[in-house]
Amino acid sequence: MANPKRDNRQRVANIVLDNPDLFKDLVSITFNVDDKTSIKAAWILEWICTHNHINWILPHLDTFTTEIYNVKFDSAIRPCAKICEHLATAYYAKKENDVQKTLTKKHIDNIVETGFDWLITPQKIAVRAYTMNTLYFFGLEKEWIHPELKHLILTKIIHESKGCKARGNHILAMIEKHQKSSL
């Protein structure tokens, strides 16, 4: 796969979708973080989880949630951050789903820890946006997350770019609304 064009990602994703046993290898390659092939694997992993179903990652949550911390290439972090956002969104969906049955406290803790690391280190806007959403959702149950997220947004993130400022203000408004509804 030469580049991340839609048709390239879909073509390679179709190979994996037609051969589900390859998905485990895709996860492994994604976390072979010293090899630039991991970037392309992360693109396909995210494509499958986004365009087909997040449930594909569920049997691999132990690996995914412990290894995302080690991902170092910017182009691989973004797809991993997007998968985290999809997991958080599904976990807090009103309609019962398999993510709610499979995602454990340990998985969530690993995602939250990595998310905060992504917010305090230099990252692209998309990573910050996906991560703020993810942390907002997990902060609905873990009381300490919203104050920490709010502090990071106010002291760091909103000063980085217009995109970060816009998403940061959106998340701050959601935190405020949640706090008012909890009273």
Topology:
Elements: H1 6-18, H2 22-30, H3 37-51, H4 61-67, H5 74-91, H6 98-102, H7 105-120, H8 125-138, H9 145-155, H10 162-182
Helix pairs in contact: 1-3, 2-3, 3-5, 4-7, 5-8, 7-8, 8-10, 9-10
Notes on the structure:
This protein is mainly α. The longest helix has 21 residues. The model has no long low-confidence stretch (mean pLDDT 94). It is built from 10 helices and no strands. Helix content is 70%, strand content 0%. The N and C termini lie far apart (52 Å). The radius of gyration is 16 Å and the shape is globular.
Average pLDDT for all residues: 94
Query: End-to-end distance, in Å?
Result: 52 Å
In terms of per-residue confidence, which ranges show pLDDT below 50 for 5 or more consecutive residues? Answer: none
How many helices does DSSP assign? 10
The main β sheet shows up as: none
| SSE topology string | HHHHHHHHHH
Q: Which term fits the overall shape?
A: globular
Find the structural class using helix and strand composition: mainly alpha
How large is the radius of gyration? 16 Å
The protein's oligomeric status is single chain
**Can you count the beta strands?**
0
Strand content: under 5%
Helix content: over 70%
Please tag this protein with its features.
10 helices; mainly alpha; 183 residues; single chain; 0% strand
Brief write-up:
The chain has 183 residues and is an all-alpha fold. It is 70% helix and 0% strand.
